[in-house]
Amino acid sequence: MTKHLACSKMWTDINVNVPTKEIKNCCKREPQMLSPDEITSYGRNVFVKNRELLEDKKYFIENNDFPKTCSHCKHSHPASIWQNWNEWKYREWSPVALDSLMDSDFTRNVEIMLSTTCNQTCMYCTEQVSSEWAKLKGTIPIVDTAWKDATLQALYEYIECKLTFDFTPLTYNFLGGEPFLELETFDIMEKIISIHDKTWGKHSSRYISFKFTSNLNVKKRTIEKFLEYVKAHPRYKFSVAFSLDALGTIGEEIRDGLDFSRFEENLRLLMTEPRLHRLDLLPTLSCLNVQHYHEVLQWFIDLAKEYKPVSEYGNTWQIGTNLVTWPFELMPALLPTHYSTYLDKAAEVMRQLPNSSYREQQINYLNRIKVHVIGKQRNKIKIDDAIRWFEEQGRLKNKNYWEIFPDLKNILNYENLNDREPTDGNS
């Protein structure tokens, strides 16, 4: 028995991205670019047995190393997101079990991005994900209808032939853009529910969940309609994961277009609905919010405790982990090393929660970022590149980021690499 780098997501996840015509297993992984004809030819097997995926699985198994399509994790390991997202990282493998992986399908998470429809221009986002970014850059999103139709048809067939006869927990996660603003989201969800309803009598105790990964920057009535839909489908579980990187103005600038008061109002509305199975905060660490990370954690914990027992952390509410890996100019690796002290503050906030594997996962994540990421790629060339990038972004959005983020001057001052303390945005 031995440990192995094989990542569970390559076997448990399916990610369908309609705007970019991508099928993959992880948002950090390079996609398989397949034509509509190729998708039709593969049929329902396109998600688990296409040639590139099988080659990558074989490479993982035989070499105990990341394939080239997993370059994000390959280059940042051991601080990679593999540490957080791989459910097999502690597993001991026998040779027989490893051999059987090639033909195994453990799908339990299906992510679907239908469009780029969005109302924000987050600083680490692009026109490929946000329609507002597309407007800003003067590009027009074009949907390949043939690719979309072929992929969704293959997905429905895969669900009907494979996922309706499985008793393992299953989650469908709708991504964006902003899924609450994409009207077709509910049509697709209704189609998937109709497929599962056909065999419900045989699987009445099965956990099937529908998740929305949202910016919560939508009208209150939109959230109310969603909750009405939840109540109308008692057989199924529903959850919401919501992105927020900092509080107030700083959060609104990083996730440009966000109305923080609207976000909080919508979150409180969701917290009051007992039919929602789970609510997760998804903060993304960048060089702009490391010093504020402990604040957003404390805010969410305090708010959640108004509605949920603290003992339910990890079950009905939780804090996720994510890290900016593009553009480099926003990566925490650019920070002076003394910024790691803010991650100690964040870890102390997490220790307010009862001891559990969920709490320790977040603390271990913070420790890895502190040791393996903060300041590890800080040099004059990259700092000069970052200065140019922030100036270009400022001209594009007609913003002065040196004023919006006061500590940016300290972060990007190479001559004072580690001798100037952060200002917490108050200088």
Primary descriptors:
427 residues; alpha/beta; TIM Barrel; disordered C terminus
Describe the model.
The structure is a single chain. With 427 residues, this protein is an alpha/beta fold. The chain has a single domain, classed as TIM Barrel (Alpha-Beta Barrel), CATH 3.20.20. 41% of the residues lie in helices and 11% in strands. It contains 18 helices and 10 strands. Strand 1 (13-17) and strand 2 form a beta hairpin. Helix 14 packs antiparallel against helix 15 (357-372). The protein is globular. The chain starts with 8 loop residues before the first helix and ends in a 16-residue tail after the last helix.
